[in-house]
UniProtKB/TrEMBL annotation, chain A:
Chief location bin: endoplasmic reticulum
Localization terms from the record: Endoplasmic reticulum membrane
Keyword Metal-binding: no
Coiled-coil ranges (or none): none
Family: Belongs to the EMC1 family.
Keywords recorded for this protein, A-Z: Endoplasmic reticulum, Glycoprotein, Membrane, Signal, Transmembrane, Transmembrane helix
Listed name of the protein: ER membrane protein complex subunit 1
Ranges of residues in domain EMC1 first beta-propeller: 28-241
Originating species: Coemansia aciculifera
Record note on quaternary structure: Component of the ER membrane protein complex (EMC).
Membrane topology recorded in Swiss-Prot or TrEMBL: Single-pass type I membrane protein
Signal peptide: 1-27
Region described as Disordered: 913-933
GO biological process terms, semicolon-separated: protein folding in endoplasmic reticulum
UniProtKB/TrEMBL annotation, chain B:
Top-rank taxon, per record: Eukaryota
Protein name in the entry: ER membrane protein complex subunit 4
Name of one Pfam family that matches: EMC4
TM regions (residue ranges): 79-101, 134-157
Keywords noted in UniProt: Endoplasmic reticulum, Membrane, Transmembrane, Transmembrane helix
Record family assignment: Belongs to the EMC4 family.
A GO CC term attached to the entry: endoplasmic reticulum membrane
Membrane topology designation: Multi-pass membrane protein
Protein source organism: Coemansia aciculifera
Intracellular or extracellular location(s): Endoplasmic reticulum membrane
Amino acid sequence: MLGSHSLTHAALAAVLAVSSFSMTVQGLFPDEAGRIDWYRAQIGVPKSIVAHTQEDRSTNILTITDRNVLASLNPDNGEIAWRQLFSPTERINALKVRGSLALTHSGGNETHVRVWDAQSGALAWGYSQPPSPNYQADSGAVEFLRKSQDVLAIVGDSLVRLAPNPSKPVWELALNGTASYKRLVVQDNVAFIIGDAVLSKKQPKARLHVVEVSLKTGRVKQQYDVNTERSLGSSSSVVLESKEYGGYILWRDDKNIVWNIHRLGMQEPMWDIYHAKLVQSELMPVDMLTSTLGELDADPGLIADKPRFTLTYTKDNKVKTVVVEMTHANDKLELRKVVGFRSDNAIIAGSGGATLPSSGASQTERAVVAVRTSGAVSWRVYGSNKTPTHSGELAYDAATYGPVTAASLYYVGGDPRVLIQTSGGLVAALAPGSNAPVWFRDESLTHATDMTFLELPAPASSAEHAAKATDPSVLASPVTRYVLRWVETAKSLAAWPASGFGLFGSSSDTEPGSGSQSTLEALVPTAPLTEGDHFGFRKLSIFGTSTGVVAALSTQSGARSWTRYLADNGTAVTVERVFITRRSQPLANTPSLLTVVGRNTYGNSVVVVLDALTGEILGDGGIHVLPFNHVKVFELPTTEKTTEQQLLGLATGGSEPRLAIWPATAEAAKAFCALPESVFFDLGALAGSSQLRGYRAECPTEAELDPWKESSAFLPSRSWVFDLPEGEVLLASSEYHGAQTTALLGRVLGDRSVLYKYINPHLVTLASRRAAGGIGIYFVDRVSGRLLYSAVHESASVSDKQPFLATQSENRIIYQLWQDSTPVGGSTEGAQPRSKGYVTVVAEMFESDKPDTRDESKAFSSFDLKLPHVITTAFMAPEPATALGVTRTGSQITTRDVLFGLSSGKLLSLPDQLFDPRRPKKSPTKDEQAEGLMPYMPSLPLDPKRVLSHANVVAGIAHIKSAPTHLESTSLVASYGLDLFFTRTSPSGTFDQLSPSFSKVNLVVTTLALVVGCLLGGPMVRRKLTNQAWA
Amino acid sequence: MASSNKVYADFTSLVGKSSRGSKSAADPYGYDQAIASGSISSMSLAHGKSDEEGDMALRAKKGWEVAMGPGKTLPMQAFMAWMSGTGVSIFSILITGMILMTPVKTIMSTQQTFAPLERAGKGAKKLDLTMQKAAFVAINIAGLIFGIYRLSIMGLLPTASSDWLSFIPAKQFMEYSA
């Protein structure tokens, strides 16, 4: 009886053990593209939006953005129909749309004009103008010619007429730097170019320079100055274009109530005078003096006739806007009021609506929208009537994405859609009759400056939640909590058979699926994500952006948990760094803290402390504007005692830097001074300087710490200066990120001896431009300022297009450079073999070049006079990288993968072993074989199987970050820049997880069969033994 | 001791059986009931003192044979070890385990191995086999050393610095920098 009892126990234990597996094997498939990763294509914040209606009356929204993307959006859901990414250095200046063609003007002195098929995004043709020494900054404009496919463009210092597929322009007119030309007005036979004339001492007042050019020959017909005292784009001048009546410049002189109207090409008289009172009768001279003029249409050339503009004035503390249209009556210019309305805190925009080529502009497409931005966002669309044709409201909290800064209007099947943009980077389409957006795009993260991972508390069982309410002491000990969990598991076991043994159960992951952010997701996330999962896959990734938005996203699905817009005095705070300064314990009442450090418009340092789980701004002051501006922020290895908040150090620049701390309390200052180790810091490698300075924080006496204020700071002493060799200029620097964990302190060689790793968390890598050409690399210790290693890449260069990238992990530094050793002048005598391309260099540091030689001391001090033994090697990179990173796991037992963000939009992960500088260049010896070293191959493989982003094109990867999960094998990888791509990877395979093909059913059935076998076989065997004993 | 008793017990049973069983066959030729069932004294009576010395010498000689026994298996073990190679595989591990375990077990049972030779019977004079035992142990230790040598060439002995790498504590950093 006793035996069968213990068997029953064993069976129960087996069942319990099996049931506990059911939690550990969800969603761990290594190759589940789209399930373990998520991807979001982004475009940036639009600079100009043109709705483009095609022949079949379908509308597309064409936009150029501040991230140099030309994109076409689906007007119904905001999804990207197509996008074209321009080089980060080639700014898109203008977008024009005619019929099925889109025209862009991009670049600076070296200008590019491109014509695109608006439907497909395919490049129809393009033209590039080489740089010119006479180029005037900001000059440039582009326009289609009428009744022709030709394009007129101001490129560099020239005006060119381009026919499709030009090898060279039809004609080119050198402008000789006479003005900064920004406007083109095209007539049938002539074109006017208007620019801000170059100011001189003789003529210090702003004036416009107008050039009339014959379209046929490209000859200058006339050129003259108009003394407007206003520059182009000022709030007191507009340029009006009309096919029939020609072009006009209209402006109001300072301290003058009348408008001056100059007809382009007409010098006698230079201008007419017009009284605004004729347009709006209630205008009084005093209102006129503060009135502003504004252009309405993003692409005025589209509205061929009746050009229009707005007049905005304040009367009786009410802001009013009048839409004024230009017409001609009896060959005399006339300005006519179309509609007037109240416009307090409103943004006025016209339907930049592209017209159908056949039908011309209809009245609805000439509508104007006014979007009120203070309080609730409400909008009204006006036709020619004082009563709005459509109106609507948006339930929107400006604390999430900031106030509305721009609007535009387009039509979908006769229905207006109002596109709003906020200063935080939200783009939303509104329709009448709904207070939720039709669709929205969160483009704030295209301006992400920093990101950090927040570990979410593991899901607590309902028993634990119950215990928290009744008897919190149970939760204090891990043993009682474990018992609590077992009790609950045992209870749920009773319901297990009823649920079909979990075979038909649904996944516990209830987060919304990834994919395009569109109509599915609510604009304001309803419930913030507060619980993680058992494996640490679900964390919060908290972004800080230069547009003032701090946003928390789930690493598992990309769903937004919360967003917060930080503004100081109405302008966005440029967030630079985000730090988790307190990690809350599971079920604890103290929240995790997020400290955001940024700058306001005046450059002052701004610190904001938020609840990391909900995004709530904590503290009385909310946003702390500090009376200094920092050049560097870093974490300090101590916490303030009462709040358990980690200290941050904010170093200011200048010749006598100061070190302020956050929280700025006396207690924090005391905690800082109680640090056992001395704190050193450098002020970062300021591009263009030729030295790096190191400082050591000094503590005053304790009495001086007491009245510690936000303006208080320590006075650090300068401990070293690292001067670059004569003529060298700093370009970039790289350092370790976060605490470094090392599982093995040495490299085991083939003969079982050890090369000990040189691990120095203070190491900074500097890249400098040498006077004689080439790039110098310096490994500098940040504590002592000592040079640990240096290298010269004579044929390398660093530029905006070919940046210096580096990543540091353990004792290895990997960096990438552009190298072109093609001899200048073509002489190859005595030169190295020609090589051109991206080079990935690896430097690995060891304590000694001899195995088994180690500094035996228990502590590492940078003031020890030991230098590392550095082994380096270089590889040819398969493609230019835009970002480098390394995977991180909990204990770093798993091998690392080196992550490359490639310019082709791939996130490539290559094993660490490939980058081993000890890879033998000859045939490997026995020891090298035993060590597992691969023979050296000069080029790194671009293995499609190792592309983590698989089919996704992850454009513009600028940063790659990695975070460990609770599984040692698995590491989270996040890349951001333009697009977002999050995934998880297991560099050494999923050795700590059951394979997806593991059959739990088989395990249960086998165990049960064995238990039944034991129960049946036991008595039989016992009977047989008894019989044998009697025999 | 026990074994010598058992020998006598068998003979006694023989005697008992024959006396009891009337149906038993006639005694074979040369069989002497008196000798077969006789005591040690009758045995000793039957042999002279010189006989006892010769027996001792014989046992000492036998003792040397037993002591040298493991030495004969050493070449065989070496051959097996060579055949199984120095790689770490199930076969080489098994053989190395055998090479290591056999000498240890044999050394542990040294007393039992030599016990029958030390005393011919109950109350008989004890033969001094210390030298033989020492040789026996020494040869087995040689076998053990061979086993350990084999472990070392297989790389299973923690003699290299890499074997202790995981136990080295990471260095404390004296300074903090940012």
